[in-house]
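S2.1 Query sequence (Ferrous iron transport protein A)
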Amino acid sequence: MAERTVSHLKKGEKGIIKSFSDKVMSLKLLEMGCLPGSEVRLDFIAPFGDPICINVGGNYSLSLRLNEASVIILE
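Output structure tokens follow.
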């Protein structure tokens, strides 16, 4: 079974960050505050489905492209 990522979330769904599938992209995401153990919630989806807006840890919103969101593996 494929691992569940942020790109699989539906609007309003939450998940806990477990790890990342891409080493280079993980550095960018870590710098933006996407830390393992943080809760993320999908808040908005653009009309054509990309980009999306997630809330990280209840503290701030972050816009990501789907290819970036697919790197964030959830528990």
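Residues 23-31 form the longest helix (9 residues). The domain at 6-74 is CATH 2.30.30.90 (SH3 type barrels.).
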